[in-house]
Amino acid sequence: MQDKIKMAFIACVNDDRAASECAWYIDRLNVPENMEIDFITIKDAPSMCAGYNAAMRSTDADYKIYIHQDVFILNRDFPIDLVRVFEENAQYGLLGVIGGFLPPNGSGWDHWTVGATYAVNEDKNLDLRFKRMTEEAVAETDAVDGMFIATNEDIPWREDIFDGFDFYDLSQCEEFKRRGRKVGVIMQDEPWCMHDCGLSKLTSYDSYREKFCNEYSDKYRFDEYYTVSSEKEEMYKLGLQFLETIEEALGMGNYEFVYRVLAELKDRRKLDNKLNALMDVRELCEINGGVVSFSQFGGSVGEIVGRLNEYKFQMRRAALGDENALNFLRTELDAGMLSQQGIDFLNRRFM
Question: Which helix (H) or strand (E) holds 72?
């Protein structure tokens, strides 16, 4: 390693609590004496590319790790391991933890077949460990998922084209390859990260896929394959309507009504992330005592979802041996907010 190494983690943030949890995991990393670690957050960026460009220009870090605010680094030796992988694979300029090979129509999210990560989607926790492609430290791919992108040089993100939150990752992979640098996925025996991603709606995905295909037309052609059907669009709209109805009922203290609505929605997990969280809280309350327990979680959707998030964050910390988190859970148990059965449910759902 060189004498002085700077590493910057960069995240676009619209949820301060998720970002603080991301930072907690970064603070746990084993950092060599010759390395300086920074965590740069860009709040309410107009697009992922714009936010990442602003952060990139603000630091002279040798290595930049662009991560989602809900990605948590589990590998405590990450700083040393990442530098080693880059140094031993000098032809690579951009690395991820999952990725794959793109079809001619440019769709990426449904073609990840390389790498590893833990994840939590709308209805279960996932251990994604794809078949190891190589005994080498890195497998070359077309692209990597934007949940985690590590670079060892600065190439501008294409905010002139990708002014939203889709295809910024695939575009950046193409920009690196245009400059003669390889893109790849780190081969991990144990996943380095957890992605608490929830439901991905992808409502703008195909419009940005068209932009992607137009910009990189030497490789890709836009077609009539659509990620989000009109039926799915209607489902998403229905989810927002349910949320509005629930928020209004909570404002009037009508927890019984909310409890019934969530029971009817329990098999419709692809409507909305906040609805999914409310359904999780209802299941937890079924264990803890029913609707009376539900009313203790808060008086608004935001409060209820926030309390659930706090439980899962603290449980993960406790599993890593954090004494403050263990004390938090003991206090919740003593107060009757949680039961051991409730903790078991949360373990099955989020751990």
Answer: strand 71-73
- Rounded to 5 degrees, what angle do the CA atoms 151, 157, 161 make? 150
**DSSP H or E stretch at residue 149:** strand 148-151
Q: Write out the two tokens for 148.
A: 């985690």
Q: How many CB atoms lie within 10 A of CB 11?
A: 25
Residues 207, 16: Cα–Cα separation, whole Å: 29
Q: What is the DSSP secondary-structure string of 45-66? A: -SSHHHHHHHHHHH---SEEEE
**Rounded distance, CA 351 to CA 346, Å?**
7
Averaged pLDDT score across all residues of the chain? 94
CA 36 to chain centre: 25
Q: Which residues contact 290 (CB under 8 A, 6 or more apart)?
A: 259
Give the span between the Cα atoms of 153 and 179, in whole angstroms.
Answer: 11
Q: Contact 250/282 with Cβ under 8 angstroms?
A: no
The tokens 């359904």 sit on which residue? 279
- Burial of 238 from C-beta contacts in 10 A (0-12 / 13-18 / 19+): middle
- If phi > 0 it is left, if psi is from -120 to 50 it is alpha, else beta; for residue 202 that is left
How far separated are the first and last CA of the chain, in Å rounded?
A: 35
3-state secondary structure of 101: coil
The least confident of 13-27, 175-189, 269-283 is 269-283
DSSP per-residue codes, 217-264: TTT----S--SS-HHHHHHHHHHHHHHHHHHHHHHTT-HHHHHHHHHH
pLDDT tens digits for range 285-308? 988 877 878 888 999 999 999 999
Which one-letter amino acid corresponds to residue 115? G
Question: If DSSP codes are grouped into helix, strand and coil, which group holds residue 175?
Answer: helix
**Residue written as tokens 């890709």?**
220
